[in-house]
Specification:
Layout: H1 2-16, H2 20-35
Length: 36
């Protein structure tokens, strides 16, 4: 239950605005996952 609520809040935050620093970090993680 709590996890779902946190995820919803997190998703809302991400949709609102993603700092460039955070966006680049996400891209880096995605590249690592894709490289495997």
């Amino acid at each position: 239950m709590i996890d779902q609520n946190l995820r919803k809040v997190y998703d809302d935050l991400v949709e609102d605005e993603i700092p460039d620093r955070f966006r680049s970090l996400l891209d880096q993680l995605r590249r690592q996952e894709g490289g495997k």
